[in-house]
Amino acid sequence: MIKKLIPAFALFLAVNTYGQDNLINQVKNNESNKVGNSFGFEVVVDNEATSVKSQGRSGTCWSYSGNSFLESEVIKKTGKQIDLSEMFVVRKVYEDKGMKYVRMHGYLNFGQGGALHDPIDVLRSYGAIPQNAYNGLLPEQTVNMHGELSAMLKAMLDAVLENKNGQLTSAWNNAYKSVLDVYLGNTPNEFEYEGKKYTPKSFADKVVKLDADDYVEFTSITNQPYYKEVFIEVPDNWSYGLSYNIKPNEMVDVVDAALKDGYTVAWATDVSEKGFNIKNGLAVVPEIDFKKMTDEQKDSMFDGPKTEKVITAENRQVAYDNWETQDDHGMHIVGIVKDKNGKEYYTVKNSWGKKYNNGYLYVSKAFFKYKTTSFMLNKNSLTKSMKKKLNIKK
Fold first, then answer.
1. Phi and psi at residue 354, in whole multiples of 5°?
2. 31: number of Cβ within 10 Å
3. Can you give the pTM of this predicted structure?
């Protein structure tokens, strides 16, 4: 299997794309890593994933994490590695989001962000394209840089909404797509892959071979009924996607069952807390609030296993309702490790390049329970009892 691991980096974006190393060897040989040494991590579960990428200077983590997740799904189903085009997904989401923004008279969050289900919706509606057929880069670029693009698109849509002609023309959408063409390139109607020609739809059907209906999303909130599909109340859920609402402990149970059955998990979370430290490659929930810590406690936060805050449905909801928990970032959960005390953490693949710990980090289950906004996985990984609770028939 292709493995990985150990910490990540400060909310900036490295620009390299690298192959993965073997996780077990990294854990054994991680002499230079303070966290790896002080926590004594051992591998429990390690599922295959493709190489670490960088989203560059763009807010497209949702596409990178979603595509990484789908690439692992392809490996599990077919045994084949495919590098899918993140920018094909971004391009199609911008098209659909722009149309909805106008139809909603601007009452819709418009920006670079998106949701975990967006790559699934693109797969279902438009198909898929390999990275080497569509990279979405301008000739002078080596990484994504979307600040100007996003501002340009928003300004154009807002000009359309001003409606100076009294009614909308039939040209605005083509003009909008032309800006996407200039910045991201025309999406190919046909391309070659391993000596054969495909369309995006035929590539999805014959090479990717995934069923978009196999994927389900989860959240945990107290203001909606449990075991029902509920609206994910975060700004980047522009397409109004639904998630099954389950209890915090059940979130961990569902993810553990999936990972141990060889599946991986796409994950949306908040990364603004002091307990999320990309340089150390660790995400934890300190038992003592950071603002109340002594300098000594702050300095020692990541020097070995510590007791963490007990996470409940109630304190999780408080953090969500007071905006401490927001939809900051999407990543890809691929495995489980345990520290020298036997406590388990998730192995998480990031999309900020390989500068810190080869692009991976360890996330405690307490952090996962506390800061998850949603996660997505293959419904075939669900236990019979969970499917029954959710009334999932197949």
1. -115, 20
2. 7
3. 0.91
